[in-house]
Specification:
It contains 4 helices and 4 strands. It is of the alpha+beta class.
Length: about 100
């Protein structure tokens, strides 16, 4: 997923788009090394393992998990990856662009 996420972030650099990561890895040092190795450029939080506070708040029970929110913070898509993620984000950006033209 990381190469695709990196590509998405790079493609949308001047658009109203933000990718945020929540990581439930057990070992923070290993996670940090992985993020450096993979070239993460987006904000990402460590949630202290699979029982972390963010994981509990969002009721996450399986990984990977993603949510695509619109400009109002409403979850519009869940668990879309690859091309489906691209289409979901592009659709929301088109909606936002259409709203701004009115």
């Amino acid at each position: 997923m990381v190469p695709h996420e990196r590509s998405l972030v790079n493609r949308l650099v001047n658009k109203p788009f933000v990718l945020l990561g929540i990581n439930s890895d057990d070992d923070k040092r290993m996670l940090k090394a992985y993020m450096i190795q993979e070239g993460f450029t987006w904000r990402s939080w460590w949630d202290r393992g699979i029982d972390g506070p963010i994981t509990k708040m969002w009721n996450v029970h399986s990984w990977p998990r993603n949510y695509v929110l619109d400009e109002k913070g409403i979850i519009r898509f869940k668990n879309v990856y690859g091309e489906r993620l691209e289409r979901a984000v592009d659709a929301l950006l088109r909606e936002l662009d259409e709203k701004s033209k009115k």
